[in-house]
What does this fold into?
Amino acid sequence: MAEPILSASGVTKCFGPVEVLHGVDFAVLRGEVHALVGENGAGKSTLMKILSGFHPPTSGTVRVDGRPVAFAGIGPAEALGIVLIHQEFNLAEHLTVEENIFLGRELRRGPFLDKRAMRERSRAVLAELECPVDPDRRVRDLAVSERQMVEIAKAVSRDVRVLIMDEPTAVLTGAETAVLFRLIRRLQGQGVAVVYISHKLDEVTAISDRVTVLRDGHHVATQPTAALTQDAIAQLMVGRAISDMFPPKEPPPADAPVVLEAQGIAVPGWVRDAGFDLRRGEILGFAGLVGAGRTELMEGLLGLRRASGTLRRDGRPLRVRSLDDAVEAGIAYLTEDRKGKGLLVAKRLQPNLTLLALERYGRVFVDEKREAEALEHAVGEFDIRVRSLDALVGSLSGGNQQKLLLAKTMQVEPTILIVDEPTRGIDIGTKSQIYHFLHDFARRGGSVILISSEMPEIIGLSHRVVVMRSGVVTGILEGDSVQEGEIVRYATGLKGRATQGEAA
It folds into this structure.
């Protein structure tokens, strides 16, 4: 085999007394797309942070072009062409796109910044990504997917030899993902090595040449992608066969009462004249392309955005002006943005768990003993894997953060649960746990509204599916109509009320 451009031999990593990587070997070749997969907490991000200079290894050897190196930070690694695109955005929101792309390595003409050269280079790299963002726009004004494209542009604008991508498509549309794949192929043709971390096994099998699997900080296997099926990769990840990924659908009784009804809902700039009903014991899916207005519709119903229209709860008019009103009506919301809006990542698990239902733990003084008991119960019930109950939320893997967010949401004991992209960026084993939780919640008489951009998730869980496009409900499908082709036709405007060129 050719000499690896970047490798790790027997690498271990300890955080305090806890060892999270156990003698891991890894190597990526020039011009190779090498996928790195594993469940949340398997050690993927830790390994990549060691290879890119963010963390030193506790023991073991990192080599570049066959020579041992000891990075004293990210600067020396980037000087050798090793660039990491983080799973979480690493952008200065108050700066422009151009300023972010060249932050810390600004181009100069004599003693002055060469603004013209940086703007032209920014436009060129954004054009390569087919991203029409103006380099003069502030990052804080960009959509989530546009920010991800800026992160990628920032990375590829460097003289990169090894590009490490940690969940790069988690917030991208299908079209944006296709653009990214074309870029990866171009970089591969130029001899750039790409390490691709993803929980989306269809992407892994489509883009990679080899796959390395980590499990619980151990190296499990490295094999040619062509020799593996998605099921085989999943089995290597979790150490067992993944069966019954989705629980069997148990539709609510035909006479199940309507627990929530929305009519003529409008959210200025996003949604108009939207309506649907939700039945007891039902999982109601909301499908559509990114930007269709699904999240904005729900935020309007919950008082998080200005909205108009009629809402009924169990047949009675309901006015929701804030999230507190929704909680009082038995409606809870799991946001799609767990780190930005759902959790306080710099705080411990205990205050995060009880924050939404804090009044239940004391009105003047918080009963910390009851809080601690609630946390112990939640850790067991939701299988939150954490080294210590005193750990900061930011130290948890993405999947365990998501399970904590779900536990927090359930603290208010809702009968209607609205979940927005509940499995984004988490591993296949944790996904299955969340699917079974939602199924059991509905089976016990609860009702679920599921917003998801993953078609298998929508089809595998939903009893009915509401499809939106350009802020309009284009169709409500049930029974045999809940199929990918039919959903896509309504989502793209081939069927339903929204027509080409409509905007909310």
